[in-house]
Structure formats: C-alpha cells, structure tokens
Write a structure and sequence with these properties.
- With 379 residues, the chain is of the alpha/beta class.
- It is 48% helix and 14% strand.
C-alpha cells in the first residue's frame, strides 16, 4: 500500500500538470481522460486498519505470562550428604536466557531436574507459571520406538502433522525421504537429532537443555542456535561450551561445587572476567572497606529500583541490532538501485527516491532506539 501510494503521488503530479495545461488549438481534452486524471489527483492512501502493529510470536509457540519459573531458597543434597547448593534464588523472566556453569558434580543437571519438576528440592520452593509449556532435552534422551517412522513419532498421539512440524523436520534435515524412514534405520547422531526435534515439536515456550554440545553434531548445534535466535521463549542451558553459551545466554548461574549458587549478569564473558579478577579484587576491597579510627565503616546506600533488568535490555538491544541490519540492507539496496536504474524512467526514479526517504527515516529511528538501549544498559 505504501508503494502504491508513492506511485499514485508521482502520477498525480504529472496528471495535475496535464489538467492545468490548456488544450491545443481547435481541440479539447477528452472527458474520460479528464475523469481518470481527476480520480488519480483526488485519490487518497488507504486508511490503516489498526493503529498499532500486531505482535506475533513464532508460529505455534504459546505466549508466556509474566511469571515463568521462580525459585526461592532452593537447596538440595542426596541421602543426607553434602549440600550441592543452598539458598538458590532464581526468577526466570519471559524470554530470559540463562546458562548454568560449574565443575562436574556441582549439581547443574540437578537444578534442571528441579526446575522441570522431576525432582523435589530438599529445601525451598519452585513456582511455575500457569502459561508455561516445558520442553526438556536431557543427556539420556527419551526412549524411541524403532518400528515407528520419523513422521509418526513427530506427529505423536494425535497422528496429525501440522505445518509447524513439517517446518521443524525440514529445518533439522529430515527431508521427505527421511521422514518416512523407520527410526531403527537412523544412525546414533540422527536419533539424537530426532530426540531434540521431538522436544521442539511439542512447541514449548520454556526450554531446558542439558549439555547439548556433548551429543549433537556441529551442524545440528548451529541449526539449534539459529532456531533459538528468533525463538521467543525462555531458555535454561547447561554447557561447558563457551562459544555455545556466549551465543545463547544472557546471564549465568554459577555453581562453585562448595554449596554456593550465585547469579552473574552479563553472560559467560562477564562471568569469566569476574572469575579471573576475583582474587585481586577481593584483596583490594578488603583494604578499601577496612574501617579505621579516622574513617568509620561506610554504610552502603540502598539500591535504586531498576526499571528494566539487564537481561531484558540485552534482549531488546539484540533485537534492535537485527532490525538495524535489516533497515541498513533495505536502504543500501534502494540507494544502489537509484544509481543503476535507467535515468530516462523518471516515474520509477521518483518512486525509488520516495522509498529511499522512507528507508532513511526508518533507519534513523532504529539507530536512535539502539543508542538509547545501549546507554540505558551501560548506566
């Protein structure tokens, strides 16, 4: 509609000029031609159906409410042994991306089992929101019936394949031939890929991944990361793979193996930087904060309430970056066409110039929003 309106405006200028010109001697302008020109000049752009844009999630993914998963004072140990962790506090927000790191045996998979409701914690509570649809890809994987075909396993109990199922199978390299293959004929890697596909085929809006880099081949892992880039749900992933964590998570929950669990905003890079600087920084803090007779102990001012969490700002910033790339590509494409199209086609060039002006305005708006988000995150 915007493109059609730009064309109409350019035609209207030419038609208006024609209407204003007098007819040649001993002739008159045709009435039909006058009526057509008048209709173009008096035309208007179609009114917008709705004042605000319609926001749609990824097809098939149920929308999340305000509450996703809230854990308070959670602690766990097995058979009265040493505590794996205690006083774990976690509030997973809609669209939040959380990584869990720590040494082997620190309880990372145990945290996922508790969040999934498979395991009751020894202490503390876990509250799951009413709109949550959970998907869990663990290290053992679900049992597969080898006699079933791939498409029958994906269809599940309903026996009906949806458009979302077909898209997922194609996205994870189960083409038309592979969809009819019995599961028992698949390789081990293909069966692990199918197990991941079965989790995603349930269309969860909260996804738990336990060491996906251990079992998935590199191509499948990259396909999963690409899928998660535009997936609107919440994610919790346990992994030792730094590259995978840096691409998929925004905050990190650190289990130190000595019973402590702490949340580190800023993703794996911020956690790794803090871990490397911790010994010298702690020593400096002890010296700086040590009270003296001339300088009594300083009180810590109360924290000011935050409007938006850092993870929310990072998610919005990443979305703005994607929009910025798309807007820049549109602007560059129009600018290139403006220089390569035939200069004799003045109407087409005028339409391109109008579209380029719209693209420049759009790009400026996205740049301003990106700068505002970056400034808020830095503050």
């Amino acid at each position: 509609e915007a493109s059609a309106e730009a064309v109409r405006r350019n035609l209207a200028r030419a038609e208006l000029a024609w209407l204003r010109r007098g007819a040649p001697a001993r002739t008159r302008k045709p009435k039909a031609r006058i009526a057509a020109a008048t209709a173009i000049v008096e035309g208007r752009a179609p009114a917008a159906d709705r004042a605000t844009p319609l926001e749609l999630a990824t097809p098939g993914t149920p929308r999340l409410g305000d509450k996703v998963v809230v854990a308070e004072g959670v602690g766990h140990r097995f058979d009265g042994g040493d505590w794996l962790f205690r006083r774990l506090a976690l509030d997973l927000e809609p669209g939040g991306r959380l990584g869990i790191v720590g040494p082997n045996g620190a309880g990372k998979s145990t945290v996922l089992d508790i969040l999934a409701g498979r395991l009751a914690p020894v202490e503390g509570t876990v509250d799951v929101g009413p709109t949550v649809r959970l998907g869990y890809y663990d290290q053992t994987g679900r049992t597969l019936d080898g006699s079933l075909r791939v498409r029958d396993a994906v269809a599940g109990r309903s026996g009906q394949l949806t458009y979302d199922h077909l898209r997922l199978m194609e996205r994870f390299w189960f083409d038309e031939d592979a969809q009819w293959a019995p599961i028992e004929t698949l390789s081990g890697g293909e069966q692990r890929r199918l197990q991941l596909l079965l989790v995603l085929a349930e269309l969860p809006n909260v996804l738990l991944l336990d060491e996906p880099t251990n079992d998935l081949d590199l191509d499948t892992l990259r396909a999963l990361e690409d899928y998660l880039d535009s997936w609107p749900g919440s994610l919790v992933v346990v992994s030792h793979d730094r590259a995978h964590l840096e691409r998929t998570v925004e905050d990190v929950l650190v289990l130190d193996g000595a019973g402590t669990a702490r949340l580190t905003p800023g993703g794996f890079a911020a956690y790794d930087a803090a871990r490397r600087q911790r010994p010298s920084r702690r020593g400096a803090e002890r010296v700086a904060n040590r009270p003296t007779a001339a300088s009594p102990a300083r009180s810590v001012p109360p924290a000011t309430p935050k409007q938006r969490t850092p993870s929310t700002l990072r998610r919005l910033l990443a979305q703005a970056e994607r929009e910025l790339e798309a807007a820049s590509a549109v602007r560059d494409n129009l600018a290139a066409r403006l220089t390569t199209d035939p200069p004799s086609d003045h109407v087409a060039l005028a339409v391109l110039a109008q579209e380029l002006a719209v693209a420049e305005t759009r790009l400026a708006e996205v740049e301003e929003r990106w700068l505002a988000l970056a400034e808020e995150l830095g503050a």
